[in-house]
Every structure is written in structure tokens, then in C-alpha cells.
Amino acid sequence: MSEGFATGKELQFVVFKLGNEEYGVPIIQVKEINRLTTTTKVPKSPVFIEGIINLRGQIIPILNMKKRFDLTLTEYTGEARFIVVQVVNHTFGIEVDSVSEVLRINSSDIEPAPYMVCGIDSQYITGVAKVEERLLILLDLDRLLSDEEKEQLQEFKNETA
């Protein structure tokens, strides 16, 4: 079982796809899920920031998860979404190919993250969940951005506000 999960505890994750792989993020960190929209590009932004959007008066940076994880870039379809997440004091969106469901997963079904999973460094991964015949890569949103990148993100938001 992965460290940080109490034995026998049921956890909820929003499940989404990037390419052919399924990922999960804790539902408690998800604010909302929206259809993918055009972003406004901002010069000199980090390479994995696709741009910004105005979501009901709040400027939200949108991260391209494929770029963040150095995955093959493909065109998004009508199933593409952005998931608005809250990580400590930072709100941002993550672009994904599709969102499929909210799953309840028992912590005993979560294994520690191997060093590399699907080419993604284990620092971003909380664990791997076994759900029937599927394996879900559970992401650690707190580690998705380094402290320096979180600072850049805050500066980025302040400059565009």
C-alpha cells in the first residue's frame, strides 16, 4: 500500500485519460470540470502552460499535461476537458483528453509508485490503483509543480491580472 493512505480507507478520484493511459486525481482537489476552450497565450510563460482563461472573472492558468509529462502531443477531440484544481493556494486547470468517472478506491488497492510509470517520473505519482482489470496512475497534484514553478505561476497570474 502507498504511504500516506490509511489502511481500509475509501478514497475518491476523478479519472481522466492522457493518450491511452488512465490517471486519477483526488476529488477533494477538483473544483470543476469544463469543456476545453481556447486559451490566451502569454509570452515567456513556462513551456507546459498552454495559456490562461477567464473563468467567471478569475484568471486561471491552464497546464498542458502532455507537455508537463513529456508525452506524445496529439490533437484534442470533443471529449477533451480541463479540470480546475486547487493545490494549497494555487488554482489552475489541467488539460486532459477526456474525463470518464469518479471512482471510489479502497486504499488497500493502491500500490506504491514504481520509479517510472509510462515515462512519467514517480515524483508526480502517489501510487497505482488496481481497479478490476485496469491500472490507474494516481497523481500527486502537490508535487506537479516545483516550489519555483509555483512561484512562477503566481507571478504569471499577477502579471496577467
What's a quick, concise take on this entry?
This protein is mostly beta strands. It is 11% helix and 48% strand.
Considering DSSP H and I runs of 4 or more, what fraction of the residues is helical? 10-25%
Q: Would you count the extended β strands for me?
A: 13
- Along the chain, the helix and strand elements come as EEEEEHEEEEEEEEH
Helix count from the secondary structure assignment: 2
Specify the structural class: mainly beta
N- to C-terminal distance? 42 Å
Mean pLDDT figure: 85
Instruction: Identify low-pLDDT runs.
Output: none
**3D shape:** globular
Radius of gyration from the CA trace? Answer: 16 Å
Would you mind describing this structure in some detail?
The chain is mostly beta strands and 161 residues long. The protein has two helices and 13 strands; from the N terminus they run βββββαββββββββα. The protein has helices at residues 65-68, 147-160; strands at residues 10-18, 21-26, 30-35, 49-55, 58-64, 81-87, 90-96, 98-106, 110-111, 116-117, 120-121, 125-131, 134-139. The strands form three sheets. It has a six-stranded mixed sheet, with no helix packed on it. A hairpin with a 2-residue loop joins β1 and β2 (21-26). The mean pLDDT is 85.
Indicate the topology.
Layout: E1 10-18, E2 21-26, E3 30-35, E4 49-55, E5 58-64, H1 65-68, E6 81-87, E7 90-96, E8 98-106, E9 110-111, E10 116-117, E11 120-121, E12 125-131, E13 134-139, H2 147-160
Parallel strand pairs: 2-13, 5-7
Antiparallel strand pairs: 1-2, 1-8, 3-6, 4-5, 6-7, 9-12, 10-11, 12-13
